[in-house]
Amino acid sequence: MKKPDFQKLKRYLPWILGAVMLLSVTLVPMAIHGADFGDFAGDNDYGGGGGGGSWDDDDDDGGGAVIWWLFRVVYELFGVPGVIVLLLIFVGIYIARKKLKGSRSTPVQTQVQRTDRASLSPMHSYYGLDPHFDEAAFREKLSNLYVQFQNAWQAKNMESLRPYMTDAMYGQYDRQLDAYRQRGQTNHIERIAVLSVELAGWRQVSGKDMIVAEIRTRIVDYVTDDRTGQIVRGSSTQEKFMTYEWTLVRTSGQLTGQQSGTTGQTCPYCGAHIDINHTAVCEYCGGVLTTDTFDWVVSGIKGLSQQTR
Predict the structure, then answer these.
(1) Residues 141 and 284 in one domain
(2) Phi and psi dihedrals of 194, rounded to 5?
(3) Closest Cα partner for 32 from 22, 23, 47, 45?
(4) Suppose 280 and one of 109, 143, 162, 232 were both cysteines; which one would form an S-S bond, judging by CB atoms 3.0 to 4.6 Å apart?
(5) Is residue 223 assigned to a domain?
């Protein structure tokens, strides 16, 4: 093994340690835990198109140049054995990152952007397809749904929300909520205020009508331990001002009914008459119904920004 030049080692050691620490933080990001419905609120504020945290594998902030410099210095000081040791360190960091990524109980949002408004048609043009569509009533529905979503999340029971979400989305968020059940924790969302609901536009995709809405809210968001009642994350006093993008879908060709609130349908499994907006599970045969065939349901949510005050 090449004997180290201690004069050079003394000179380079602070830089080597600093580079290793920097790259460790870069390669193994800090876990940013989310909260509120879907885990969009978090410990750190975000905005300007960013999500509540990211570990995008395509990010490049100059780390490659730092790594190259570090290997050159280690080779100069320790030769090939030093390079091998450094390489093993980075392999260990890489493995740790993968394990951390796979074991997260609540996913961290990746960088997200608003849906391109140029890809949407203005809402007034939707009346040509559905003359009974009421934009004001639709905004009020989304405002009420937001509050219902948060209350159900805090109660750790999303069954009442099934009629208002696609099956895929319901399954995804129920799995996230199950992590709170297993940990014995409750996510409290209090002092909820919906500040504004904007319908950004609509378009048709794969036999579905799709409406994109931007919702701005204020909440107080924190997590407690069910056994002790102690706050384990967040604050019971700080207010978070959130901006979300909701995507809602409905089978193309459907029209807004003259009645509001409910849609009576026949169960395709047993023929029983049910209220699809009261429950998406037939009370007679237990069949789970696909609700987006009959009325608007949420198919996706993005967290666009968070500001804590």
Answers:
(1) yes
(2) -90, 115
(3) 45
(4) 162
(5) yes
